[in-house]
Amino acid sequence: MLEAGDPELIAALLQARPTLRVIVICPARSCAVAQAAVAAGAWDVCYLPVDPLALRQIVARAFNVHALHAAASAAAGGGEEAGGDSGVITAAPEMTQVLRTVSRIARTDVSVLLSGASGTGKELLALHLHAASPRAKGAFVAINCAAIPDTLLESELFGHEKGAFTGAIRTMPGKIEQAAGGTLFLDEIGDVPLPLQVKLLRFLQEHAIERIGGRRPILVDTRIVCATHRDIDQMVADGQFREDLYYRLAQIVVAIPPLAKRPGDALLLARHFVAKFAPVMNPAVRGLAADAIAAIDAHDWPGNVRELENRIKRAIIMADARLITSADLDLVKGAERPTSLRAAREAADRGAIRRALARTEGNISQTARLLGVSRPTLYDLLKSYDLHA
Ligand SMILES: Nc1ncnc2c1ncn2[C@@H]1O[C@H](COP(=O)(O)OP(=O)(O)OP(=O)(O)O)[C@@H](O)[C@H]1O
Protein backbone atom coordinates (compact mmCIF):
# COMPACT_ATOMS: atom_id res chain seq x y z
CA MET A 1 0.00 0.00 0.00
CA LEU A 2 1.39 3.39 -0.94
CA GLU A 3 0.49 6.78 0.38
CA ALA A 4 -0.16 9.39 -2.35
CA GLY A 5 1.12 7.03 -5.02
CA ASP A 6 3.98 8.10 -7.18
CA PRO A 7 3.08 6.93 -10.73
CA GLU A 8 6.71 6.16 -11.56
CA LEU A 9 7.09 4.02 -8.46
CA ILE A 10 3.83 2.18 -9.22
CA ALA A 11 4.92 1.54 -12.82
CA ALA A 12 8.33 0.32 -11.65
CA LEU A 13 6.75 -2.00 -9.08
CA LEU A 14 4.41 -3.47 -11.69
CA GLN A 15 7.24 -3.82 -14.14
CA ALA A 16 9.10 -5.96 -11.62
CA ARG A 17 6.01 -7.89 -10.44
CA PRO A 18 3.16 -7.59 -12.99
CA THR A 19 0.73 -9.47 -10.73
CA LEU A 20 1.19 -7.16 -7.76
CA ARG A 21 -1.99 -5.37 -6.57
CA VAL A 22 -1.09 -1.81 -5.71
CA ILE A 23 -3.58 0.09 -3.54
CA VAL A 24 -2.95 3.82 -3.26
CA ILE A 25 -4.08 6.06 -0.41
CA CYS A 26 -4.78 9.55 -1.80
CA PRO A 27 -5.43 12.88 -0.17
CA ALA A 28 -9.16 13.54 0.13
CA ARG A 29 -10.83 14.62 -3.14
CA SER A 30 -7.56 14.48 -5.03
CA CYS A 31 -8.83 13.18 -8.34
CA ALA A 32 -5.61 14.04 -10.14
CA VAL A 33 -3.50 11.86 -7.84
CA ALA A 34 -5.99 9.01 -8.07
CA GLN A 35 -6.19 9.23 -11.86
CA ALA A 36 -2.42 9.27 -12.24
CA ALA A 37 -2.09 6.29 -9.91
CA VAL A 38 -4.73 4.25 -11.76
CA ALA A 39 -3.22 5.22 -15.10
CA ALA A 40 0.12 3.91 -13.87
CA GLY A 41 -1.54 0.59 -13.05
CA ALA A 42 -2.73 0.90 -9.44
CA TRP A 43 -5.30 -1.75 -8.55
CA ASP A 44 -7.50 0.62 -6.55
CA VAL A 45 -7.43 3.86 -4.55
CA CYS A 46 -8.65 4.81 -1.12
CA TYR A 47 -9.08 8.41 0.17
CA LEU A 48 -7.94 9.99 3.43
CA PRO A 49 -9.29 9.72 6.06
CA VAL A 50 -9.31 6.01 5.35
CA ASP A 51 -12.61 4.22 5.84
CA PRO A 52 -11.47 0.89 7.37
CA LEU A 53 -14.50 -0.99 5.98
CA ALA A 54 -13.91 0.25 2.42
CA LEU A 55 -10.20 -0.55 2.69
CA ARG A 56 -10.92 -4.02 4.00
CA GLN A 57 -13.23 -4.65 1.02
CA ILE A 58 -10.61 -3.45 -1.47
CA VAL A 59 -7.93 -5.66 0.08
CA ALA A 60 -10.30 -8.66 0.25
CA ARG A 61 -11.20 -8.20 -3.42
CA ALA A 62 -7.52 -8.00 -4.36
CA PHE A 63 -6.84 -11.24 -2.47
CA ASN A 64 -9.85 -12.95 -4.10
CA VAL A 65 -8.85 -12.00 -7.62
CA HIS A 66 -5.25 -12.96 -6.92
CA ALA A 67 -6.34 -16.37 -5.59
CA LEU A 68 -8.56 -16.97 -8.63
CA HIS A 69 -5.70 -16.18 -10.96
CA ALA A 70 -3.27 -18.35 -9.05
CA ALA A 71 -5.76 -21.25 -9.14
CA ALA A 72 -6.38 -20.81 -12.87
CA SER A 73 -2.69 -20.61 -13.60
CA ALA A 74 -1.87 -23.64 -11.44
CA ALA A 75 -4.62 -25.60 -13.20
CA ALA A 76 -3.07 -24.58 -16.50
CA GLY A 77 0.17 -26.16 -15.32
CA GLY A 78 2.07 -22.91 -15.26
CA GLY A 79 2.42 -22.87 -11.51
CA GLU A 80 2.92 -19.11 -11.86
CA GLU A 81 0.88 -16.27 -10.61
CA ALA A 82 -1.75 -14.80 -12.88
CA GLY A 83 -0.09 -12.85 -15.60
CA GLY A 84 2.27 -15.67 -16.33
CA ASP A 85 2.65 -16.54 -19.98
CA SER A 86 0.37 -19.56 -19.96
CA GLY A 87 -2.34 -18.23 -17.61
CA VAL A 88 -5.89 -17.34 -18.47
CA ILE A 89 -6.32 -13.83 -17.13
CA THR A 90 -9.73 -12.84 -15.85
CA ALA A 91 -11.50 -11.32 -12.90
CA ALA A 92 -15.02 -11.44 -14.33
CA PRO A 93 -17.38 -13.90 -12.62
CA GLU A 94 -18.76 -14.88 -16.07
CA MET A 95 -15.32 -16.14 -17.05
CA THR A 96 -14.15 -17.58 -13.73
CA GLN A 97 -17.25 -19.79 -13.86
CA VAL A 98 -16.15 -20.97 -17.32
CA LEU A 99 -12.66 -21.68 -15.95
CA ARG A 100 -14.07 -23.70 -13.07
CA THR A 101 -16.21 -25.75 -15.48
CA VAL A 102 -13.26 -26.40 -17.78
CA SER A 103 -11.02 -27.45 -14.88
CA ARG A 104 -13.68 -29.85 -13.67
CA ILE A 105 -14.28 -31.33 -17.13
CA ALA A 106 -10.53 -31.72 -17.61
CA ARG A 107 -10.33 -34.47 -15.01
CA THR A 108 -13.04 -36.53 -16.76
CA ASP A 109 -13.27 -38.15 -20.16
CA VAL A 110 -16.30 -36.27 -21.45
CA SER A 111 -16.02 -34.53 -24.80
CA VAL A 112 -16.12 -30.75 -24.89
CA LEU A 113 -17.09 -28.18 -27.47
CA LEU A 114 -15.89 -24.66 -26.72
CA SER A 115 -18.22 -22.20 -28.36
CA GLY A 116 -17.47 -18.51 -28.59
CA ALA A 117 -16.75 -15.67 -30.96
CA SER A 118 -13.39 -15.31 -32.59
CA GLY A 119 -10.61 -14.23 -30.25
CA THR A 120 -12.46 -15.01 -27.00
CA GLY A 121 -9.71 -17.42 -25.91
CA LYS A 122 -11.01 -20.81 -27.08
CA GLU A 123 -7.56 -22.17 -27.86
CA LEU A 124 -6.13 -20.86 -24.59
CA LEU A 125 -8.96 -22.56 -22.71
CA ALA A 126 -8.37 -25.81 -24.59
CA LEU A 127 -4.73 -25.60 -23.50
CA HIS A 128 -5.89 -24.90 -19.95
CA LEU A 129 -8.11 -27.99 -20.12
CA HIS A 130 -5.24 -30.12 -21.42
CA ALA A 131 -2.87 -28.87 -18.72
CA ALA A 132 -5.42 -29.57 -16.00
CA SER A 133 -6.12 -33.08 -17.32
CA PRO A 134 -4.34 -36.37 -16.58
CA ARG A 135 -2.90 -36.02 -20.12
CA ALA A 136 -0.89 -32.92 -19.21
CA LYS A 137 2.43 -34.66 -19.85
CA GLY A 138 1.34 -35.62 -23.37
CA ALA A 139 1.38 -33.30 -26.39
CA PHE A 140 -1.12 -30.52 -27.02
CA VAL A 141 -1.63 -30.21 -30.76
CA ALA A 142 -3.88 -27.56 -32.32
CA ILE A 143 -5.25 -27.36 -35.84
CA ASN A 144 -7.54 -24.77 -37.39
CA CYS A 145 -9.82 -26.71 -39.71
CA ALA A 146 -10.93 -23.49 -41.48
CA ALA A 147 -7.39 -22.51 -42.43
CA ILE A 148 -6.58 -25.74 -44.26
CA PRO A 149 -7.99 -26.48 -47.71
CA ASP A 150 -10.45 -29.39 -47.71
CA THR A 151 -8.16 -31.45 -49.92
CA LEU A 152 -5.31 -31.30 -47.40
CA LEU A 153 -7.31 -31.59 -44.19
CA GLU A 154 -7.68 -35.38 -44.33
CA SER A 155 -3.93 -35.87 -44.65
CA GLU A 156 -3.27 -33.28 -41.90
CA LEU A 157 -5.59 -35.08 -39.50
CA PHE A 158 -5.08 -38.72 -40.38
CA GLY A 159 -1.63 -38.70 -42.01
CA HIS A 160 -0.57 -40.59 -45.11
CA GLU A 161 1.64 -43.44 -46.19
CA LYS A 162 4.56 -42.95 -48.55
CA GLY A 163 3.32 -42.99 -52.14
CA ALA A 164 -0.35 -42.54 -51.17
CA PHE A 165 -0.59 -39.64 -53.64
CA THR A 166 1.68 -37.57 -55.85
CA GLY A 167 4.05 -35.72 -53.56
CA ALA A 168 3.71 -38.15 -50.66
CA ILE A 169 7.44 -38.87 -50.64
CA ARG A 170 7.48 -40.15 -47.07
CA THR A 171 5.06 -41.55 -44.53
CA MET A 172 3.60 -38.76 -42.37
CA PRO A 173 1.60 -39.35 -39.20
CA GLY A 174 -1.32 -36.93 -38.92
CA LYS A 175 -2.22 -34.58 -36.07
CA ILE A 176 -4.38 -37.21 -34.36
CA GLU A 177 -1.35 -39.49 -34.06
CA GLN A 178 0.94 -36.59 -33.12
CA ALA A 179 -1.32 -35.88 -30.16
CA ALA A 180 -1.37 -39.52 -28.96
CA GLY A 181 -1.39 -39.60 -25.15
CA GLY A 182 -2.34 -35.92 -25.19
CA THR A 183 -5.00 -33.61 -26.61
CA LEU A 184 -5.88 -32.55 -30.13
CA PHE A 185 -7.61 -29.18 -30.37
CA LEU A 186 -9.80 -28.94 -33.46
CA ASP A 187 -10.59 -25.28 -33.98
CA GLU A 188 -13.47 -24.36 -36.30
CA ILE A 189 -14.85 -27.90 -36.29
CA GLY A 190 -17.85 -26.61 -38.28
CA ASP A 191 -15.55 -26.29 -41.29
CA VAL A 192 -14.78 -30.02 -41.50
CA PRO A 193 -16.38 -31.26 -44.73
CA LEU A 194 -19.04 -33.99 -44.49
CA PRO A 195 -16.95 -36.88 -45.92
CA LEU A 196 -14.23 -36.18 -43.35
CA GLN A 197 -16.82 -35.97 -40.58
CA VAL A 198 -17.57 -39.66 -41.23
CA LYS A 199 -13.89 -40.55 -40.79
CA LEU A 200 -13.64 -38.47 -37.62
CA LEU A 201 -16.73 -40.17 -36.21
CA ARG A 202 -15.15 -43.57 -36.86
CA PHE A 203 -12.05 -42.50 -34.97
CA LEU A 204 -14.14 -41.35 -32.00
CA GLN A 205 -16.08 -44.63 -31.96
CA GLU A 206 -13.18 -47.03 -32.48
CA HIS A 207 -10.16 -45.03 -31.27
CA ALA A 208 -8.43 -46.13 -34.45
CA ILE A 209 -7.39 -44.25 -37.57
CA GLU A 210 -6.29 -45.24 -41.03
CA ARG A 211 -3.69 -43.09 -42.76
CA ILE A 212 -4.38 -42.20 -46.40
CA GLY A 213 -3.04 -45.12 -48.41
CA GLY A 214 -2.75 -47.19 -45.23
CA ARG A 215 -3.85 -50.79 -45.12
CA ARG A 216 -4.43 -51.29 -41.41
CA PRO A 217 -6.08 -49.38 -38.62
CA ILE A 218 -3.79 -47.84 -36.01
CA LEU A 219 -5.03 -47.56 -32.43
CA VAL A 220 -4.55 -44.01 -31.10
CA ASP A 221 -5.38 -42.66 -27.65
CA THR A 222 -6.01 -38.96 -28.30
CA ARG A 223 -8.52 -36.71 -26.57
CA ILE A 224 -10.33 -34.38 -28.92
CA VAL A 225 -11.40 -30.93 -27.75
CA CYS A 226 -13.08 -28.83 -30.39
CA ALA A 227 -14.28 -25.29 -30.84
CA THR A 228 -16.37 -23.21 -33.14
CA HIS A 229 -17.72 -19.71 -33.53
CA ARG A 230 -20.56 -21.01 -35.72
CA ASP A 231 -24.02 -22.15 -34.70
CA ILE A 232 -23.51 -25.92 -34.91
CA ASP A 233 -27.09 -26.65 -33.83
CA GLN A 234 -28.24 -24.75 -36.91
CA MET A 235 -25.67 -26.56 -39.07
CA VAL A 236 -27.03 -29.90 -37.80
CA ALA A 237 -30.57 -28.74 -38.55
CA ASP A 238 -29.45 -27.69 -42.07
CA GLY A 239 -27.73 -31.04 -42.67
CA GLN A 240 -24.28 -29.44 -42.87
CA PHE A 241 -22.98 -31.17 -39.77
CA ARG A 242 -23.59 -34.78 -38.78
CA GLU A 243 -25.77 -35.08 -35.71
CA ASP A 244 -24.07 -38.31 -34.55
CA LEU A 245 -20.65 -36.62 -34.72
CA TYR A 246 -21.98 -33.57 -32.90
CA TYR A 247 -23.16 -35.68 -29.98
CA ARG A 248 -19.83 -37.53 -29.85
CA LEU A 249 -17.86 -34.28 -29.86
CA ALA A 250 -20.04 -32.17 -27.64
CA GLN A 251 -21.22 -34.00 -24.56
CA ILE A 252 -20.67 -30.68 -22.84
CA VAL A 253 -20.79 -27.32 -24.59
CA VAL A 254 -18.93 -24.51 -22.83
CA ALA A 255 -19.98 -21.06 -24.00
CA ILE A 256 -17.20 -18.48 -23.68
CA PRO A 257 -18.59 -14.97 -23.20
CA PRO A 258 -17.39 -12.19 -25.49
CA LEU A 259 -14.97 -9.71 -23.90
CA ALA A 260 -17.68 -7.02 -23.84
CA LYS A 261 -19.69 -9.22 -21.47
CA ARG A 262 -16.84 -9.59 -18.95
CA PRO A 263 -16.85 -6.39 -16.95
CA GLY A 264 -13.37 -5.20 -16.02
CA ASP A 265 -11.54 -7.82 -18.04
CA ALA A 266 -10.59 -5.54 -20.94
CA LEU A 267 -8.58 -3.28 -18.65
CA LEU A 268 -7.11 -6.16 -16.68
CA LEU A 269 -6.00 -7.84 -19.90
CA ALA A 270 -4.74 -4.56 -21.36
CA ARG A 271 -2.45 -4.09 -18.34
CA HIS A 272 -1.37 -7.71 -18.56
CA PHE A 273 -0.42 -7.30 -22.23
CA VAL A 274 1.44 -4.04 -21.55
CA ALA A 275 3.42 -5.73 -18.76
CA LYS A 276 4.08 -8.74 -21.01
CA PHE A 277 5.05 -7.05 -24.26
CA ALA A 278 6.44 -3.61 -23.38
CA PRO A 279 9.71 -4.86 -21.85
CA VAL A 280 10.51 -6.62 -25.13
CA MET A 281 8.91 -4.33 -27.70
CA ASN A 282 9.42 -0.84 -26.21
CA PRO A 283 10.83 -0.81 -22.65
CA ALA A 284 10.16 2.94 -22.29
CA VAL A 285 6.43 2.20 -22.11
CA ARG A 286 5.24 1.81 -18.53
CA GLY A 287 1.45 1.85 -18.59
CA LEU A 288 -1.78 3.32 -19.89
CA ALA A 289 -2.76 7.00 -19.86
CA ALA A 290 -6.17 7.97 -18.45
CA ASP A 291 -7.66 8.56 -21.93
CA ALA A 292 -6.48 5.11 -23.02
CA ILE A 293 -8.16 3.54 -20.00
CA ALA A 294 -11.40 5.37 -20.80
CA ALA A 295 -11.19 4.30 -24.46
CA ILE A 296 -10.55 0.66 -23.51
CA ASP A 297 -13.56 0.76 -21.20
CA ALA A 298 -15.79 2.32 -23.84
CA HIS A 299 -14.79 0.10 -26.77
CA ASP A 300 -16.99 -2.90 -27.72
CA TRP A 301 -14.10 -5.23 -28.61
CA PRO A 302 -15.76 -7.02 -31.55
CA GLY A 303 -12.50 -8.94 -32.08
CA ASN A 304 -12.37 -9.82 -28.37
CA VAL A 305 -9.08 -10.59 -26.61
CA ARG A 306 -7.18 -11.02 -29.85
CA GLU A 307 -8.16 -7.51 -30.98
CA LEU A 308 -7.13 -6.15 -27.58
CA GLU A 309 -3.80 -7.95 -27.69
CA ASN A 310 -3.08 -6.69 -31.21
CA ARG A 311 -4.05 -3.11 -30.35
CA ILE A 312 -1.84 -3.11 -27.28
CA LYS A 313 1.10 -4.51 -29.23
CA ARG A 314 0.64 -1.90 -31.95
CA ALA A 315 0.24 0.87 -29.33
CA ILE A 316 3.42 -0.20 -27.54
CA ILE A 317 5.30 0.21 -30.81
CA MET A 318 3.62 3.53 -31.67
CA ALA A 319 3.83 5.16 -28.21
CA ASP A 320 6.15 8.17 -27.99
CA ALA A 321 5.76 8.60 -24.25
CA ARG A 322 5.86 6.41 -21.18
CA LEU A 323 2.09 5.99 -21.12
CA ILE A 324 0.02 4.61 -24.01
CA THR A 325 -2.69 7.02 -25.18
CA SER A 326 -6.03 6.33 -26.88
CA ALA A 327 -4.48 7.64 -30.10
CA ASP A 328 -1.72 5.01 -29.84
CA LEU A 329 -4.49 2.42 -29.49
CA ASP A 330 -6.20 3.88 -32.56
CA LEU A 331 -9.52 3.76 -30.78
CA VAL A 332 -11.94 6.15 -32.43
CA LYS A 333 -15.01 7.00 -30.40
CA GLY A 334 -18.50 5.86 -31.42
CA ALA A 335 -19.45 6.74 -34.97
CA GLU A 336 -16.58 9.18 -35.47
CA ARG A 337 -15.01 8.84 -38.89
CA PRO A 338 -11.39 7.66 -38.93
CA THR A 339 -9.09 10.63 -39.42
CA SER A 340 -5.75 9.04 -40.28
CA LEU A 341 -5.26 7.57 -43.76
CA ARG A 342 -4.20 4.28 -42.21
CA ALA A 343 -7.40 4.01 -40.16
CA ALA A 344 -9.54 5.00 -43.16
CA ARG A 345 -7.87 2.36 -45.30
CA GLU A 346 -8.28 -0.27 -42.63
CA ALA A 347 -11.99 0.56 -42.32
CA ALA A 348 -12.38 0.30 -46.12
CA ASP A 349 -10.46 -3.00 -46.22
CA ARG A 350 -12.57 -4.48 -43.45
CA GLY A 351 -15.80 -3.44 -45.16
CA ALA A 352 -14.75 -4.89 -48.52
CA ILE A 353 -13.59 -8.17 -46.96
CA ARG A 354 -16.77 -8.53 -44.89
CA ARG A 355 -18.97 -7.87 -47.93
CA ALA A 356 -17.03 -10.33 -50.10
CA LEU A 357 -17.19 -13.00 -47.38
CA ALA A 358 -20.93 -12.49 -47.07
CA ARG A 359 -21.39 -12.81 -50.83
CA THR A 360 -19.41 -16.07 -51.01
CA GLU A 361 -20.82 -17.41 -47.74
CA GLY A 362 -17.34 -17.58 -46.28
CA ASN A 363 -15.68 -19.41 -49.18
CA ILE A 364 -12.02 -18.36 -49.00
CA SER A 365 -11.06 -19.08 -52.62
CA GLN A 366 -14.05 -17.22 -54.05
CA THR A 367 -13.55 -14.33 -51.63
CA ALA A 368 -9.90 -14.00 -52.64
CA ARG A 369 -10.93 -14.01 -56.31
CA LEU A 370 -13.62 -11.35 -55.72
CA LEU A 371 -11.17 -9.13 -53.89
CA GLY A 372 -8.44 -9.70 -56.48
CA VAL A 373 -5.87 -11.01 -53.99
CA SER A 374 -4.21 -14.39 -53.49
CA ARG A 375 -5.44 -16.80 -50.82
CA PRO A 376 -2.33 -16.32 -48.64
CA THR A 377 -2.81 -12.54 -48.83
CA LEU A 378 -6.44 -12.95 -47.82
CA TYR A 379 -5.44 -15.15 -44.87
CA ASP A 380 -2.93 -12.48 -43.80
CA LEU A 381 -5.60 -9.77 -44.05
CA LEU A 382 -8.11 -11.84 -42.09
CA LYS A 383 -5.52 -12.40 -39.41
CA SER A 384 -4.39 -8.82 -39.10
CA TYR A 385 -7.96 -7.46 -39.03
CA ASP A 386 -9.26 -10.16 -36.69
CA LEU A 387 -11.85 -11.22 -39.23
CA HIS A 388 -13.15 -14.72 -39.76
CA ALA A 389 -14.67 -16.51 -42.71
N1 LIG B 1 -8.16 -14.71 -20.71
C1 LIG B 1 -7.03 -14.53 -21.39
N2 LIG B 1 -5.89 -14.23 -20.74
C2 LIG B 1 -4.74 -14.02 -21.42
N3 LIG B 1 -4.63 -14.09 -22.76
C3 LIG B 1 -5.73 -14.40 -23.46
C4 LIG B 1 -6.98 -14.65 -22.82
N4 LIG B 1 -7.90 -14.95 -23.76
C5 LIG B 1 -7.26 -14.89 -24.94
N5 LIG B 1 -5.97 -14.57 -24.77
C6 LIG B 1 -4.97 -14.37 -25.85
O1 LIG B 1 -5.68 -13.78 -26.95
C7 LIG B 1 -5.29 -14.38 -28.19
C8 LIG B 1 -6.49 -15.03 -28.85
O2 LIG B 1 -6.93 -16.15 -28.06
P1 LIG B 1 -7.30 -17.58 -28.70
O3 LIG B 1 -6.45 -17.88 -29.90
O4 LIG B 1 -7.30 -18.59 -27.61
O5 LIG B 1 -8.78 -17.24 -29.18
P2 LIG B 1 -9.77 -18.15 -30.06
O6 LIG B 1 -11.13 -17.96 -29.49
O7 LIG B 1 -9.24 -19.55 -30.17
O8 LIG B 1 -9.70 -17.41 -31.45
P3 LIG B 1 -10.14 -17.97 -32.90
O9 LIG B 1 -11.55 -18.45 -32.80
O10 LIG B 1 -10.05 -16.75 -33.75
O11 LIG B 1 -9.17 -19.02 -33.27
C9 LIG B 1 -4.18 -15.37 -27.84
O12 LIG B 1 -2.93 -14.74 -28.00
C10 LIG B 1 -4.43 -15.70 -26.37
O13 LIG B 1 -3.25 -16.08 -25.71
Automatic annotation (TrEMBL):
InterPro entries per UniProt: AAA+_ATPase (IPR003593), AAA_lid_NorR (IPR058031), CheY-like_superfamily (IPR011006), Homeodomain-like_sf (IPR009057), HTH_Fis (IPR002197), P-loop_NTPase (IPR027417), Sigma_54_int (IPR002078), Sigma_54_int_dom_ATP-bd_2 (IPR025943)
This protein's UniProt keywords: Activator, ATP-binding, DNA-binding, Nucleotide-binding, Transcription, Transcription regulation, Two-component regulatory system
Pfam families per UniProt: AAA_lid_14, HTH_8, Sigma54_activat
Sigma-54 factor interaction domain mapped to chain residues: 88-317
Gene3D superfamilies membership: 1.10.8.60, Homeodomain-like (1.10.10.60), P-loop containing nucleotide triphosphate hydrolases (3.40.50.300)
Record's protein name: AAA family ATPase
UniProt lineage: Bacteria, Pseudomonadati, Pseudomonadota, Alphaproteobacteria, Sphingomonadales
